[in-house]
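> agent: user asked for a holo structure of the chain below bound to magnesium ion. Plan: (1) validate sequence alphabet, (2) canonicalize SMILES, (3) run complex prediction with ligand conditioning, (4) return tokens. Step 1... ok. Step 2... ok. Step 3 dispatched.
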Amino acid sequence: MKKIDLYFIVGFLGSGKTTFLKHFLQDFQDKKIAVVINDFGKTDIDAKLLADKIESLKEIHDGSVFCSCKSDQFVQGVTELSKEDVDIIIVESSGFANPNTLINVVDLIKKLAHNPMEFKGTIGIVDASKVAKLINVAAMIELQIYYSDLILINKIDLVDKFNLSVVNDLVTHINNEAAIHLVTNAYVKRVEIESMKMSIKPGIEKQYVNPSSQKLMLSLDEIDSKEDFEIFLLAIEKDVLRIKGFITFDNQCYFVEAIDGEIRYQKHPNINQEPVIVILAIMKRFLERYIIQKWEKYIDSPIDIL
Ligand SMILES: Nc1nc2c(ncn2[C@@H]2O[C@H](COP(=O)(O)OP(=O)(O)O)[C@@H](O)[C@H]2O)c(=O)[nH]1
Ligand SMILES: [Mg+2]
């Protein structure tokens, strides 16, 4: 019987999980890979970006795969994938995931899988430029680091030496067993992934409050000025956690995101993709009213919140 390797990716929103996944798919091209993406919601943007590169894809939305609210659906999804002709199943977990039930979930998957499954470990991605601040408001970051077997301190291009050493100390303090790499673009050599030592850590009873995050989806049919739209995105970018979506200009669809004061576009082949922007914010009251105000300030057409 064929053995399937199982990997998890954890890390806060925007830390670089999907970027890691893209490299992974590239570097493990000789393997048949199934991916599970656990992200925002219905319009899962990352899943659409990766769809053509993988053997099989499952999406789990609106809740973490480690939370009792979604773990059944997740275990069932992975069990189904284990019937297929794949060598690897890799899971990009939600940015809000608290992996403290990981080991129970893995045990259940191993029991139910149709082919023998080996849990290879958890790759944790840390955004070097944001972790020190975010860890105070989003405590699951600490647990994501604690439960990782291989940690990538990513985006080191955005921090100076001093701050990098602070981040390195912070990460080592939380987890001194995992191999830690300082990287850009969430890239680490395949050999580091293959040689990671998986450790089974018991669930720790750590009190933490789930941050009340809010998600907002904007429909973009009416946009006619790309410039105004960019100004709008940049105006809200600094106040929210994550902005990404699809937008169409001149008959070309783009994946768009606003990050670190910059707008990034990437051509997207599917012209029928509905233009939509997803905004995620943490502990922000009145998000909707705030977005509407900014929209009306910069854009003439009416706003359409889904
Ligand atoms: N400056 C910088 N940006 C990065 C780096 N790695 C990833 N990014 C960008 O960070 C953004 C979020 O990455 P993504 O992989 O989507 O994060 P995810 O939300 O964890 O899946 C994307 O725009 C990436 O291109 C890095 O090393 N340096
Ligand atoms: Mg992602």
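> agent: step 4 complete. Summary for user: Residues 253 and 272 are 8 Å apart (CA to CA). The first helix runs from residue 17 to 27.
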